[in-house]
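[09:14] KT: can someone run the structure on this one? pasting the chain below
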Amino acid sequence: MWKRSSKRWGVTVLAAALCVAGCGGNEAQEGNNAGAGAGEETTKIRVVLDWTPNTNHTGLYVARDMGFYEQHGLEVEIISPPETGADQLIASGGAEFGVSYQEAITQARVQEVPIVSIAAVIQHNTSGFAAPVDKQIQSPADFEGRRYGGWGNPVEEAVITSLMQEAGADVSQVEFVNSSADFFTATAQDIDFAWIYYAWTGVEAELRGEAIDMLYVKDYSDALDYYTPVLATSERMIEERPELVRSFMAATAEGYRYAIEQPEAAAELLIAAEPDLNEELVRASQTWLSPRYQDDAARWGEQKSEVWLNYMEWMADHGVLEGRIDTEQAYTNAFLPE
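[09:31] RB: done, structure tokens below
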């Protein structure tokens, strides 16, 4: 899987908390008009990704390169995250918008970092634990005696523990190791299973002809069917520049609708924008993911209160959240187009 820099909880969230009070937005954007019409000055904004470009991000590239942002008076720069992660940049005003995760926003808000989810990129959680079929890991009980390679987030051990407890297995029999290698290299060398997004690593396994067993976390608990990834902004943006947020979301929603309806063309736009990506993987991943962006929701981006509440309670109950938050303040559907 692509590693998620926003999951570097301690440094990222603390730095964001320290910066929010003293950091302002990008001064170069002051005076521009969101939603400017033809011939009028456009508003320059930055959108920070969570990691390397992939098909989670296709709608952003479509909206930029098909001119949807321009039609809404926006000039958008898509940027890579700094070492401290996307959330800090969003919270501090270094980027007006960015890609984050429900769990990251929940943890950030416990530490009073005022970032807000404004759209669910994918309606249901497509991540889970994967292993080559020869490892014979077909249920959480099979984690016993195995090596798990992850990124060192407390959520990982909490999820594995809860799934194994439900299966009557002993999590103390799992060896947790930090792994920076890609899934295929790591499982061939020193680990047995890892947490992946099927839309990318699972599809890549198909293309490579390497059979894997995939245990989607949402299949084991309704609370684990949370939003990952999401688009986020700061409370300051919502309070001070709501029309800019509305314009950004109108164009972005159009970009994701295009990716839903025309996955082949959308894939080509992403490939053209990021030529270092594996073209075959982008095309196959886009085909797999496009119907899952909106899935069973009434519109792309829709978020449900019970999803935010259930996962927050799960995090608190499993010791990965130092307190509880008002989840109604952590997300909003107010800027999604009707």
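[09:33] KT: thanks! The CA atoms of residues 223 and 306 lie 9 Å apart.
[09:34] RB: yep, looked fine to me
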